[in-house]
């Protein structure tokens, strides 16, 4: 069977609306439209053979060798190597820094000014009798 050019054009036009059959399709080598990326240079620790591509990870790692603890708790002065460690320390109810509001009349401490005020009010009420 032979098709003339107009029939072939009509046939190609018709088939252009059909979905591709299932199964793998190979179109080029897969690199079209992708920017070429070279691997990031690795950072190597000056104290040991540890390496990483992330600067923040290397800074945190070097602190294990130097003992630097730049994040300090304002209540107990304990130092931490990361901000996350400090936040975890200060969020634990059993820690004294979780209760930064101290009563001036007794050793009690409170996590908020409102609770300290309530304590003072109750203390003054009981001590006036």
TrEMBL record:
GO terms for cellular component: nucleus. PANTHER family: TRANSCRIPTIONAL REPRESSOR CTCFL-RELATED. It comes from Rhipicephalus sanguineus (Brown dog tick). It is found in: Nucleus. GO terms for molecular function: zinc ion binding. Coiled coil: none annotated. It comes from the Eukaryota. The keyword Ligase does not apply. Residues 43-70, 71-89 form the C2H2-type domain. Keywords: Metal-binding, Nucleus, Repeat, Signal, Zinc, Zinc-finger. It holds the Pfam family zf-C2H2. Residues 1-23 form the signal peptide. This is C2H2-type domain-containing protein. InterPro entries: ZnF_C2H2-type_TF, Znf_C2H2_sf, Znf_C2H2_type.
């Amino acid at each position: 069977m032979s098709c003339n050019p107009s029939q072939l054009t009509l046939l190609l036009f018709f088939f252009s609306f059909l979905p591709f059959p299932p199964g793998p399709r190979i179109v080029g080598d897969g690199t079209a439209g992708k920017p070429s990326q070279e691997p990031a240079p690795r950072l190597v620790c000056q104290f040991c053979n540890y390496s990483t591509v992330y600067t923040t990870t290397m800074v945190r790692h070097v602190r294990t060798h130097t003992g630097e603890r730049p994040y300090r708790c304002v209540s107990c002065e304990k130092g931490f190597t990361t901000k996350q460690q400090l936040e975890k320390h200060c969020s634990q109810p059993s820690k004294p820094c979780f209760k930064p509001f101290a009563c001036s009349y007794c050793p009690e401490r409170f996590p908020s000014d409102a609770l300290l005020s309530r304590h003072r009010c109750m203390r003054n009420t009981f001590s006036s009798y």
